[in-house]
Write a structure and sequence with these properties.
Layout (H helix, E strand, L loop, with lengths): L21 E8 L3 E7 L4 E7 L6 E4 L5 E10 L4 E13 L3 H12 L2 E7 L4 E4 L6 E8 L9 E10 L4 E3 L1 H8 L6
Antiparallel strand pairs: 1-4, 1-7, 2-3, 5-6, 6-10, 7-8, 8-11, 9-10
């Protein structure tokens, strides 16, 4: 098997037009995806197909309460490389419908499309299913504390998350029902 090879081309200094954070997440059961293809020339997702009646579900949260962090790990002694991406989501207000949804996320293998505040869509779950690795429900102590749930979804992959062109992502999520 040939090793993957990437060409170095440098990174230019960008403009000051970047915002941190996650705007929305769209989640589907991993088994409901029937096809995922990568455009190797652009290193972006070219196609995602789902079972005919299955849609990505929309997950909304307050600004500043979600993040995506990818961490690469390499070990030359055993010759491996992987990237772990954690998607941390916070949902305000403890209530039964959210409790049940968090339980479903904890028990299901999923794929996730993440929309960041720069208008970019990213796919978690290309190599393997995304799984919940942590979840909490908290009442808070003070009146200004969080009353709600947090969940961390983790993707383990051979590369950093792939970008999805907006036309591909928007076709998948345009009819996604909000949770």
């Amino acid at each position: 098997m040939a090793c993957k090879s990437f060409a170095l081309s440098g990174i230019a200094l960008g403009c000051k037009d970047v915002m941190g954070g996650i705007k929305e997440a769209y989640i589907i059961k991993y088994g409901d995806i029937t096809k995922m293809e990568l455009n190797t020339e652009k290193s972006q997702i070219a196609t995602i197909e789902t079972q005919s009646e299955t849609k990505f579900k929309t997950y909304k949260f307050r600004k500043g309460t979600a993040s995506m962090t990818s961490t690469a790990s390499s070990d030359d002694t055993i010759g491996n490389f992987s990237v772990s991406t954690e998607l941390a989501l916070q949902f305000s207000k403890m209530e039964t419908s959210k409790r049940l949804e968090i339980m479903a996320l904890c028990l299901e293998d999923v794929a996730v499309i993440v929309l960041d505040w720069n208008g970019k869509y990213w796919l978690l779950g290309y190599d393997f299913p995304v799984t919940a690795t942590a979840a909490t429900g908290v009442s808070g102590t003070a009146a200004t504390d969080l009353n709600g749930y947090t969940v961390t979804l983790t993707d383990t992959a051979s590369e950093f998350p792939f970008e999805i062109p907006s036309e591909v992502a928007e076709a998948l999520i345009q009819a996604a029902p909000a949770v």
